[in-house]
Amino acid sequence: MRGGEISERRREGVLSDVLDLHTYRAALYIFLALPMGAFTLGLIGGGVVSGLITLAVLVGAAFLLGALWLVGGLGDVQRALAGILGVTYAPVLMPPVYRGTLAWLRGTLSDPMTYRTLLFHVMQLPLAAVCWVVLAALLGVSLMGLLAPVWALYPNTFPVVWGEQTLLPGPLAVVGLMALGVGGLLISAGVLNLMGRMWTRLAVALLSRDPGYEAARREVVALRRAAGRVALGDDLEATLADLTEQARAASTALAVALVAPDGTLRALSGPLGLGLSGPLDRMPSQGEADVRLIGNGEALATLPITLPASAEALEGGTLRAVYPAGIRPGADELAFLLSIADHAGTAQHAAQLIERAGARAGEQERARLARELHDSVAQALYGISLGAKTARATLDRDPERTRASLDYTIRLADGGVSEMKALLFSLRPDALEEGGLVAALAQHAHALEARHGLTVHARLDHEPSLTPDAQAAAYRVAQEALHNIVKHARAQNVWLDVTQDSSTVIVSIRDDGRGFDPTAAGRGTLGQRSMRERAAGAGGTLEVTSAVGEGSLVILRLPVAPPSLSKPAEVRA
User: Fold this and answer.
1) Residue (of 473, 479, 484) closest to 526 by Cα position
2) Were both Cys, which of 78, 189, 439, 497 would link to 435 (CB 3.0–4.6 Å)?
């Protein structure tokens, strides 16, 4: 059961009750129930009476609240005591949390469990007293019958007087009385077993929470964890495995599996049973569950995993759950499993989107790298080749021209090296960490001069105090701004400055190009939008000013990092 589980036993034979361990457990429980009932009613009743008497001096409120708390607290003791009868209660997965005494009071008084537990406390003492009286009577009669031989041997010691006559037992009477005693013991054992079942049913009915309530709490916890796991989205296989574990923990299923459309098992929680893998003869309809009987009276529930229309495939496989013989999933549980199946579909779709984005980003990066290599390193290598050939051709007859060709070749080689270093800085994620922002911008400035003939006036004196994220944002914003200058500005000179005051790091990029109209271009261009998003993500701001024929100015302002988060970078050549 959800709230409490009962271990039932099949009893056969005359001596089955005497030999049944449950009989003696019931006897122990009834023996403890009377003092426990008296103790419970004494505490709760005493708290209520004391509270009513002293209510006028405000102390009574504390007594009344204490008595109300004792109802739930002693209820936990009663549940532990019910363990003697073999009753176990499902743990509370999400205990309520109250803020303040009034919130606790409202929650406790509105909880039906409070009144059911109180009813058990009230019933325990009189019911236990009745059990004691009945058992005492039965055991007394049994004891008297079993002591009949002692009465026959010592009639003067145990005289039985009826009127004016003293009764003396004969042999047949002794045998009959002993048979009565044995029968009394057998009846007492049967009555104890009956009383044990009665107390068991009573403890389950009044001390266990509503099964639907507990099931709903389990399902809420499972769905919350499943949603968090899907949102994390770090590992699809681990996510699917966690979803199956949550589904099995919150349901009555023996095992839960997630199966691919071709029948391949992707994740499993519980023992691998019949029907949990392999192809199906019929797929369940979208949003519906197919429940059918399989071997050994077990039931197999199959639910579809559907993906959005934008996914590569509309079928995500199935969620399958196996139930033990005699148990069938209800409508609420099937709805919960459908929610888990939807989470599995969301996880698969998210994995597809991440894979697509990664492939697309890889294609774009490869295309960008090809353009960069073609426009820079390939051109430099071609120029180096031409310069070397010219120097070789003029080596004997024109030394001055040979020297000029070699100087030209050396300049191209230096430019190619600078360009390659800039490309490595842009490709390696740890380049900024190793070299720092100043070194990265210096390398990029050398590449611009060698590759595009720009004159870069760089003022990069000191490494600014920035967090790693802010440092990366500053480099990417400067890189995008310089790329826009090369692509659109037709500038001859570029001024690149990095300065820092007490609270702000300022990265400034200015050019003498043709400029543009900010009202026409606006903030909607992809390059500017990307730069603004990077600046905002690092906690900074971006300002872009320009006018037609007057160049443009990009100013990035970032907050200075606290000393614990910033570390001067080692500038490497």
Assistant:
1) 484
2) 439
